[in-house]
Amino acid sequence: MLNIKPNFAQERALNMLRRDWKAYESFMMYMPTGSGKTGLAAFVAAGLVSRGMRVLFVVPYTILINQTAQRFAQYGLPEDQISFIWRDHPNYDPSLQIQIASADTLIRRDFPKDIDLLIIDEAHLRKRRILKEIERITTESKAKVIGLSGTPFSPFLGRYYQRLIKPTTIGELIQRGDLSNYEFYAPTKPDLQGVKTKISAEYGSDYDEAQLAEIMCGSDLVGDIVDNWLRNGRDLPTVAFCVNKAHANYVTMQFNKAGVNAEVMVAETPHDERQLMINRFETGATKIIVSVGVLVAGFDSDVRCVIYARPTKSEIRWLQALGRGLRTAPGKDACLIFDHSGTVHRLGFPDAIEYNDLPSKNDGMKESAAREAAEREEKLPKECPECHFMKPAGVYVCPKCGFKPLVGEDVETDTQRNLKKLKKGGTVYTKADKQSWWSQIKFYQRQRSSMGKPISDGWCSHTYRDKFGEWPNGLSDFPMEITPEVNNYIRHKLIKFAKGQERADSAATTNRIVSAKQQVENIRSMLGRRTA
């Protein structure tokens, strides 16, 4: 029915959905940026429409209704069966099989009662009317519910969705080349001590916006944003995320004073004006779009640099913003990310934020969440004090500038290098320590290869396993300069192997001598019997 083929993530998601379709009434589909979320919805909808069933697709904002309908038609869904639930809209026809509505519109209208499938885009957003309908549909009807989200981390989701379907991850998409790689820098880190926390419907617990704006509008902080971009931004098309309109206006004004064409886009910016602004951005007339609460959904322009100046505790807000820079484009090797908020220190890299369960799913979630938080703490990147590049956990020497901290200099920014002592004298290695060892073993492999004496990947894996009793599964192959500790361990391993080889050779020689003597004795014995 459709004129597109599913990509690998969509194929996996569809297979997982078919497997669990009869066992559950509601599903949360984890579809990160670049995995084809709207395409997946089209495949699911096509399966039901072909059997004469009705589908309601809910977008978070009215501005996305037309865009979604156009995508569905391009993919091959029957255009004559697509209707908008929108007051006085010429495309409104409640009898058609595919109904598209915005969440805010449905809040003010009667919810359709005769649908077979409800699909909710950006389902991590808390819309009370939609959540009530999910409860009604899953308990009072035979209809199914599918939520779509690239950030299914909202604490309420486990109460409304029974099954998490996770066909891929941001890390896998980056490895496959479906998402762009990134380079993180943290030029400034504001002092947020004393800033209060508030609860919001969309992002959960986060910093108080008014207090944040007061801090982030400081002339020194804004000056650092502009100065850093002029020195390191490479004149790349950039999106900047700010706290509020006052902050965005100030940042924009300072860029304009520096001769850089920047424009502000906020929630109140009219749709037509937004499209003109995006067009100027895509043609290069506008170099920087400064955003407040927008450009986190439905924005697919080629972004090669992200300025993040909105401190947050919310993983949802963090990933939604960074996702704008992770889309691939011709000639794009990596997205530059300048974090002026300190958020990368708190939340880490985008591909390190992963969950395998929906929040609040069961009573054991608190313990599970605590374990996952501890694991993520180990993976948090560390800032190079020289160039402000954010190094992966366990990497001591900066891969960008080559800076190697002196003894004691990296204590504050690389606390995971410390080893914990057990009462009985044993050593507990953190995940960061294990990554450090593996990176140094890979460095030794590269070193040997350059000397014309290569060693295999299997040798590296077995060396790691000899040390830790486990294989280096899930660790990065990123090499780092070898330390005396690891170098001595490898030397000890090689000496031990050489001595073992000598013993084996000696034993083999002895066995050959014994065998030869035995053969001589056998020959003599046979000759003796013949002469007799």
From TrEMBL:
* Keyword Nucleotide-binding attributed: yes
Q: Name one GO cellular component term.
A: cytosol
Enzyme Commission (EC) number: 3.-.-.-
Q: Name one GO molecular function term.
A: helicase activity
Q: Which domain of life is it from?
A: Bacteria
Residues annotated as domain Helicase ATP-binding: 18-170
Which terms are listed as keywords in the entry?
ATP-binding, Helicase, Hydrolase, Nucleotide-binding
Kindly give the Pfam families that the UniProt entry links to this protein.
Helicase_C (PF00271), ResIII (PF04851)
Q: Give the matching PANTHER family.
A: ATP-DEPENDENT HELICASE IRC3-RELATED, TYPE I RESTRICTION ENZYME ECOKI R PROTEIN
Official protein name in the record: Putative ATP-dependent helicase
* Lineage, opening ranks: Bacteria, Pseudomonadati, Pseudomonadota, Gammaproteobacteria, Enterobacterales
